[in-house]
Amino acid sequence: MEELAVQTSDGRHALGYESGKGDLRDCVTAYLQSDPQQKADYRLVFREMPPAEPGGLPRRELLAVKPRQGAGNIYEHTCARLNRNLHDRQPGLNAFGDRMPGLKQNQAQRRAELDANRAIAHAFPGQVPLATSRPLSAAQFGVRRANSPPRQDHSLDR
Fold first, then answer.
1. Which of 40, 61, 105, 139 counts the most CB atoms within 10 A of its CB?
2. Which residue in 46, 47, 20 sits closest to 32, CA to CA?
3. pTM reported for the whole predicted model
4. Which residues of 89-122 are buried (b: 16+ CB within 10 A; e: fewer)?
């Protein structure tokens, strides 16, 4: 995750659209290993956005982290967080093209696709961080965005 945060890693592969799994053409998946001696056992989904201010670094928004095996579909979870229907295309994401998620690619092909998607993401005005997003830097961890609404009290006492 640190490599993703400091942008020395660009993830494993870009995601696409598939009915029933949602339209995640603006997202990328990466794999995490809880044990460096074992295969990756977690998958995460993030998206990249243009810098908040000119000359700044691009922003990366972590959307979901889930085990690769077992209950709980990370793509369903990501669509729910983004308020996207699992069967609908998002017209604003047409700029990312129509990559088929099941396509097998070698490392050079994945790298080229990630580079192309990143260039589109940096020029894409439709990318807006979720209101619940927080910076991951140690200095800003947990700090709310200036324009995010105050958190609602969801107490069980009604």
1. 61
2. 46
3. 0.72
4. ebeebeebeebeeeeeeeeeebeebbeebbebbe
